[in-house]
Here is the input.
Amino acid sequence: RQIGLAGSSFPETLKKFLGRRKGCIVMEKQEISKRGFWEILLPALFLSFTFFIFGPLELYISNIAEFWFSLGDVLWPSVLAGFLVCMLLFLVGIFLRGNWREYYICLLIGVGVALYIQGNFVKTDYGVLDGRAIQWENYTSTAIWNTLLWIACIVLPFVGRTLFKKQYKTGVTLVSGCVLLVQMITLGTLFLTTDFSKQKEGEVHLSAKNLYTVSQQKNVIIFILDAFDQRFLDQILIESPEIADLFDGFTSYSNTSCMFPGTQGSMPYIMTGQVYKNEQPYDAYIEEACKNTDYYHKLRDEGFDIGLYTTDRFLSSEMKETFLTNAEKEKIPVKSPVSLEKAMLRLAAFRYFPHIIKPYVWFYSGVFDELKAEQAESKVVAFPASNTIFYQSLKEDGLKLLPDQNVYRLIHLVGAHPPVYMNSDITIAEKGKATYITQGKACLKIMGEYLNQLKELGIYDQSMVVITADHGESSTLGAFPIFMIKEFEQHGNLKFSETPISHSNLMPTIFNALGIETRKNENTIYQVNEADDIEREYYWFQWNTVDKNYMPDLLEYQVTKEGQLYLTGNQYTYQGVKTFAPYAYEIGSEIISMDFDPRRYFLDGLASIESNGQGVYWVWTWGKSGRILLNVGDGLEGLTGNFVFSGIYAPPQKLIIRSGDRVLYDGEIFSPEEIVSFNIPSECIKNGWLTLNLEYPNAISPESRGESADYRDLAFLFSSIRFYENAG
Here is the structure.
């Protein structure tokens, strides 16, 4: 068969394209030597391998514990994508002529080197990709130098071609080949040294099986609404008091503390009662915690069908197989290999692309969980589950009765975790319209639908329901989640209690209601009196992990009955326990840095410390007030405080600083160029301790200004806080 191409027959065209003459490839009168062939192929292979193969695979293997899919699911699509892009880039180079071909090769080399440097050597801290918006405006300096770096990488090959014309082509081959070789060796080493055993076919995983089943006898149902802070509930009930009518027989405990500010610490603790303090690798802790807990032995002995619907990693395989009816062994299929490859490439893009492009490839890691394909029997669903998917199935299919067994369900939903995407009426919001409050209202209405179906089935009295969160909003210390509970056969208007309880009281309260004996050192929520001088533990961390086998360093706090947090001086690291003098401040030192996190000195009123990854740190005030506590020692003649800002939100912002009843500073700040300096008389320092109360009366949220979904009341972006001793 003859296929026309520019008026030639197929054999003639093929001869032109592939014909050989004196060791040369001939194409349309242009000779490409074998050396020239490699000069085009190697840069194309270098660029495509760096981004499409090395990038996704290195990210996958280095973070293998975070992914539910297997190596094979990501390996072959990445190789195929890399091959196709390489061939496309190569063919473009073949068809270009003269200087244009050389310019093209320079561009491939420049972009390839820039991608390699950005992905492997540029370490900018954007925080965890957990859905929270990144404050891009805080990275101005990063945007400048990173853009200059990319320009330099791209321009350098063109300069080299101009200045070193003879050596240029050899340099192209050497650079491409050497960096390719380094990446291949690195990837090979990762393959040889990584334990892929957890990626075996048939590993036990959690499914949605029996998620919507309840019992005619007894039901214990625990909802974990991820990141639902008590402050959200307070605000919701102010704006929409009618929501309280959904919770017949419930009591809301507004002074509930959790154990950690993040899911990875809190969820295993809630389910096992075993706290993690970095004394061993995290996965070893999970195995040991599941082995040592007696919760599920007791529930099984009482005839409970047990279903825990949360992230697989938080439970051991043995526990899943032994106790849980929603444990499955079949491999979780990928919903769409193409969508998985797109997600991996977007993750790679966020790491390998220049800073100025990162906002457009911003990535929420929860996308991977949405790629789990459902199976007819087990209904494999990602947990924490989408609020909307859970609600749709609840409305369409409804709760089903399981007649012969009691039912214990722990159901982990997205809750108020960012990125927020729901209107108050449980619909998907337009981009930028949802807030933590609208999503919180939607979550509570979903809970209301579930409770209403219990009533329709006539089993509301046979049901004990707990609605809580694994942690509060972790942009602050995040220690106070919601906690609402309805006992068996309980009715009445929603009640409120300020009893200082914690998640440690959850299982004892459930066992007490079931008539199961609890341990001697465990208290129910009813055994904690509001006047008791109780001690609650809290372990704060920020995601800056050095060793991925462990959690980040854990700062230990004691939570008072009034809900105040005070450092104990213990820090639990993967290298052991470190101790320090709580709030001890060295006169003249700067307290905004990763070594001196300001939350070591602020009792409240501060968000998470942020960084541009290059040693520059800042932190926003959060709320209308804050408190600083400093152990400065005795014998001082007084101090001078110095506050330096990187930004002022919605200026002018008023700042008032008090020590007791004494006003030390009262003024409006219009620009971050202004430095606040104020005198602290010696009489403000009592027994070596200084307490400063800060007020930000004009603080306002970006949400209320219609700028974003950020609901935090912001005022000042601190870049430096120092205190100097006054001259005698």
